[in-house]
Amino acid sequence: MADIFTILRWEGLGLLFALFGVVATQILTGQVSTSGLLMRKEGNRAFSPERVQLLLATLAASFQFLSQVAKDPSQLPQVSASWLLLFGGSHSLYLGRRLFLSQSKRKDA
User: Fold this and answer.
1) Residue ranges per domain, the chain?
2) Tens digits of per-residue pLDDT, 23-35?
3) Suppose 32 and one of 26, 76, 78, 91 were both cysteines; which one would form an S-S bond, judging by CB atoms 3.0 to 4.6 Å apart?
């Protein structure tokens, strides 16, 4: 029975790596556009540190979760409170900045 779980684990990891390869290939060939991913949507379209920290927090949480799943694929891992706080705080910063900018736009109009 352990052999079946080993095979399923390797198949799952193979699927994840294949999906990663397809997405990475499409990004590198330009089929998936990433232009402006880290730029502000309003004003002079300058670099947005809020978007960078949101992207980094999302990637860190995703890799941590996937590494826990790879260690024990028989069950989904518990998400710790510290990761929830990091993720919630990251989104709060991003959304707070968006709210601030939308309010300042209304005052200017």
Assistant:
1) 1-34, 35-109
2) 999 989 989 888 8
3) 26
